[in-house]
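Example record

One chain of 240 residues, shown exactly as stored in the release files.
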Amino acid sequence: MNLRFRLRPLLLGAPLAALAAAVLCACGAADGLSTGEKAPPVSVQPRPEPLWSAWSGSSPSAPGAETASKQPPPEPLEGLDDLGPGGLAEADARELLRADTRLRTLADRPMIKKPGQPGIRPPVLADLTGDGRREMLVAIDVESGRSVLAVYYEKRGKVYPILFTAGRRLVVETLGTDLLVRSPCADGGEQAVRYHWDGTRMSTVSDVKSYQKPGHAAEEEDGSSPSSPSGDSRGSGARP
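Predicted structure tokens for this chain:
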């Protein structure tokens, strides 16, 4: 065979191999990463964290809330001495309630440790403003089955009420630094209100109402599901 014809396939194969290598390199870089470059970290989205887990139950949702955009900034509570170095972490929740004109009539309610009876829930501290300091959340359950929630913020020794809301069987959770308040509605739906610190107060950023699927409410009422034996309880927490 002529040497010219024997070399021709080899010469043609070289550019084809180079082209294939280029295509493979292009596919490898399609995600914007070069060889040896580390992938960027995946950000973890916050999940709701209950603040009063005993009150979370299995039928959550939230009360309506006023839009805070046109309201004047909150005024500091009067009658309180300047907080010590411990701030709200060492404050007496009852003293805050007595200084709050909207809640002072509830300040002498008994402290409670579980749902099902009226009283003041154990105060909870959570950083809702993102400044590294924790705000105090106080919730009060009353005889009618409704609950009141107040959030207090400390600045330069003064205490400011930055959220006040109420509803039935409140379930309160944190979502990152946001606050999620849920409560059942009278028409069988559930409402979830999300609050975010706007530099002045906790303002409403979303207010979502949803409805249960048919048959779900009946399952919760008798405490059993179709796949479980009759009478098996689905939850051990009591409801207020």
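Notes: Confidence is low (pLDDT under 50) at residues 7-12, 14-36, 58-69, 216-240.
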